[in-house]
Write a structure and sequence with these properties.
The structure is a single chain. The protein is an all-beta fold and 407 residues long. The protein is 1% helix and 49% strand. Strands 5, 7, 8, 10, 15, 16, 17 and 19 form an eight-stranded antiparallel β-sheet that branches. Strands 6-9-18-11-12-13-14 form a seven-stranded antiparallel β-sheet, with no helix packed on it. It has a six-stranded antiparallel β-sheet with strand order 25-26-21-30-23-28, with no helix packed on it.
């Protein structure tokens, strides 16, 4: 038995411990329930996962390296070693894509890493964040901190909580320089709760919660559609090379995920369908400049040919093109630009392909929609995704590409 005090009243409570003598938490601060207090069961949907067995996965991660910082893949550790040597050095690894948040669903993020030994003049961040918003664990010098970053006031500000002020468990046994799994789960809805902690010995050990409902007068951060990030920066020259090891990560929607919304589309005019000689663009999409912090997912495609000639279609990502002219999408939202002009010159990645004759419609499944969602490069330039058709003859063929905007 134990005792707790709430609103100046004392209550008795049951206390349980495991075989190691560690207290087992139940209720809203335990790992048994998600961010909305629902009992955790196996009904989860993986939005993203990343391992680095053979390379740094440039298809998933962007890198920004400053000064003499380095980023080296270690296949034996299935990790990327992010190292700084001199003052001003930094290495940032951030996912090309942002991940959709669905109101009412708990979003669970896990990121594994091995930090550099915390030291004066060294800042290390791991979390789901960009330059404006997000949630992270930080080793600032020798101090561990939990951070919520927000641009809700119009400028970026951070709520920083040092380890000795964590309100659930100060986790005095946590060693940032050893292998760790950082865990975050969040309600957004603009004003929800954020819990942060670590997975130790198979148990989620939350250390701090940021409570916003009934406490703040604005959203706690502008958006919850965010990328995963790993970052190390030397603000002074360290005594020796300092290395943050980026290992593995996942983003999970607890309670499933059901994208919904209007399917917008782009297709060439029906009165001007040329012959499909070689590979020809029939539709393309990209995120508009200034709107690249969105989730734009291809949802379906249609293909049709004038006769029974067999034609191949492809979804091709970021090829070299010629003669492409972009225009704002007709749905008027301003998030997407479209095209139906130009030709493929070379390269890119074929995400999907198939054969058809006469006509056909392909509904992309949920996993493919998320996998094919548009990303951005280091400079904030959107991926470009094209639907193309090709035939060995001169078949007249065209198509339509549809997408969903989850913003």
């Amino acid at each position: 038995m134990g005792q707790v005090v709430r609103n100046n009243e004392q209550f008795e409570t049951n206390i349980r411990a495991d075989h190691r003598g560690q207290l087992l938490k139940v209720g809203p601060d335990s790992g048994r329930v998600d961010a909305f207090g629902r009992q955790r069961i196996s009904d989860v949907f993986t939005m993203f996962d990343s391992t680095q067995r053979y390379d740094k996965r440039a298809d998933q991660w962007n890198e920004t390296i400053v000064g003499s910082g380095t980023s080296t893949h270690d296949s034996d550790q299935s990790s990327t070693l992010m190292s700084v040597t001199l003052s001003g050095d930094s290495v940032l690894r951030r996912t090309r894509k942002r991940f959709p948040y669905q109101p009412g669903k708990s979003e669970l993020i896990m990121q594994s890493f091995v930090g550099a030994e915390p030291a004066s003049g060294l800042v290390q961040n791991v979390g789901i964040y960009d330059d404006a918003d997000g949630i992270m664990v930080r080793a600032s010098g020798t101090t561990l901190q939990m951070v919520v970053r927000s641009s809700a006031t119009g400028t970026m500000q951070e709520e920083v909580i040092d380890q000795d002020s964590w309100n659930i468990d100060t986790l005095s046994d946590i060693d940032f320089s050893k292998a760790q799994i950082f865990v975050t789960d969040l309600e957004w809805l603009g004003v929800g709760r954020v819990r942060v902690g670590f997975v130790v010995d198979g148990e989620i050990r939350y250390c701090h919660e940021f409570n916003h409902a009934n406490n703040v007068d604005k959203v706690y951060m502008t958006k919850a559609i965010l990328p995963l990030s790993y970052e190390i920066e030397a603000t002074a020259t360290p005594a020796s090379v300092s290395t943050l090891k980026h290992v593995c990560s996942t983003v999970i929607s607890e309670g499933g995920y059901e994208p919904h919304g209007t399917i917008s589309s782009i297709a060439p005019p029906l009165n001007a369908i040329p012959n499909a000689s070689g590979e020809r663009i029939v539709a393309g999409i990209r995120m508009a400049s200034g709107r690249t912090d969105n989730v734009i997912m291809p949802a379906k495609l249609d293909v049709v040919t004038e006769d029974a000639t067999t034609v191949q279609w492809r979804l091709r990502l970021n090829p070299t093109t010629s003669g492409v002219s972009w225009a704002a999408a007709e749905n008027g939202r301003g998030n997407v630009q479209t095209t139906y002009s130009g030709a493929i010159a070379s390269g890119g990645t074929i995400l999907d392909s198939g054969l058809f004759s006469a006509a056909g419609s392909i509904e992309l499944n949920l996993e493919n929609k998320l996998s094919y969602a548009l990303g951005v490069d280091n400079a904030g330039n959107s991926d470009e995704l094209f639907l193309t058709v090709a035939s060995s003859g001169n078949a007249k063929a065209t198509g339509m590409l549809g997408w969903i905007e989850t913003v």
